Amino acid sequence: MTLDKNFLWGGATAANQTEGGVLEGGRKLANIDVLPFGEDRKKVASGDLEMMEWKQGYYYPAKEAIDMYHHYMEDIQLLAEMGFKVYRMSLSWSRIFPNGDDKEANEEGLKFYEDIFNELKRHGIQPLVTITHFDVPIHLVKEYGGWRNRKLIDFYTQYAETVLRRYQGLVKYWLTINEINILLHQPFVGGGIVFKEGENKEEIKYQAAHHQLLASALATKIAHDIDPENKVGCMLAGGSHYPYTCRPEDYQEAIKRDREGYFFIDVQARGKYPNYALKKFEREELTIQMEPEDKEILAASPVDFVTFSYYCSRTVSAHPEDYEQATGNLFASIKNKNLPSTEWGWQIDPLGLRNSLNQLYDRYQKPLFIVENGLGAIDIPDENGYVEDDYRIDYLKKHIQAFKDAVEIDGVELLGYTTWGCIDLIAASTGQMSKRYGFVYVDRDDEGNGTLKRSKKKSFNWYKQVIASNGELLD
Ligand code: BG6
């Protein structure tokens, strides 16, 4: 058998893409709740269009999402039926600290997740908890400017400490911040940042990054102090860059683009800023405010394991204007003619997953965890909600084979695998419901119509068999 008997098989979701119940149980709005459906979504996500509350004339998919707030018992039951060993989920920050700077946590919010963890435990499913997955309480955005403000470190660590204490013994695996490098590409999503005219965006983004990196290190320390059994990971939006040609400058461009993401993980896993980043700050005259104690904070608490999402590889060139662009998971790249694409133009590359695993393992020498991977596709259900999703099975099968090769042939240390959107949910980039990833179909459309009924797709039983055989039976 290739994989360890304790290999953690499962699936992943995020609060803002599943829960709904946005104003229930004492919860208040977060940045992510005000991302509208439609063409303004991108501008809001990038921090170029201010949106601080729900406005007339817009549809906000996160408002109800798939209403997991009221369906979680049924949903966990389905995950358990597939034999999940782990369920990656996130906590909604504003469900626990509705304003973010509250003195006391919201008991109803804390209790909600406690019930979920107890239910998971009853089914023998280990939670893998992301403390923040693209969410910042909107009050912290309005009042403090989001993560550009150093005060966010205190608000985040208070929140982290609260949940780490409360769920001690129920949760062992923690991720501090989802896809931390997204901050550079979608600053409002990744950091609750809205830009003002004429601001130095690069400087603000890296200042916010500094705050997040400190907050992540402090949360790691708190987690270890509370319970030495806790394992804390960082999380990268992964997918390495290929040079479009073997021209040295294209290869150099690929290294540079990889480093935009590695920058964060270099700090979180190695405990210090890489020289190439310090040189960049100097060269581009970015003034990043750092306090004397910061170096020590970062050095004291590197993460225990490294996690990443993987959907596609990316292709770059020093001369991008010469080529056709492909869309990708939030980053633009050149279309790689050697690879097929999804309906959303993301390029399917299973071997790229093995390559990424090797690059990350070579670089950090820490256990890895693939916490997102999957195919966003249009599903056509029959009258019972059954979907014959062979395309999804095919995608997942190839990616599972790729990570098995990384373990068996290359010796990469891999803790587990959670497919993205194990139950259909709203897409982060577009807000669409029609971009589905799940083993479980949810009856809801892009406009918010539908019964929310859950039904099993063909991939449901397929994944169940994959888990039961510990990845040996892929056909
Ligand atoms: C990752 C995020 O970027 O990719 C998820 O962590 C997101 O929140 C996933 O849903 C897939 O992207 P999309 O846009 O298809 O939902």
UniProtKB/TrEMBL annotation:
Pfam families: Glyco_hydro_1. Gene3D superfamilies: Glycosidases (3.20.20.80). It comes from the Bacteria. It is an enzyme of class 3 (hydrolase). One of its GO terms (molecular function) is 6-phospho-beta-glucosidase activity. InterPro entries: GH (IPR017853), GH_1_N_CS (IPR033132), Glyco_hydro_1 (IPR001360), Glyco_hydro_1_AS (IPR018120). The active site is at E372 (nucleophile). Its EC number is 3.2.1.86. The keyword Plastid does not apply. Keywords: Glycosidase, Hydrolase. Belongs to the glycosyl hydrolase 1 family. This is 6-phospho-beta-glucosidase. It comes from Enterococcus larvae.
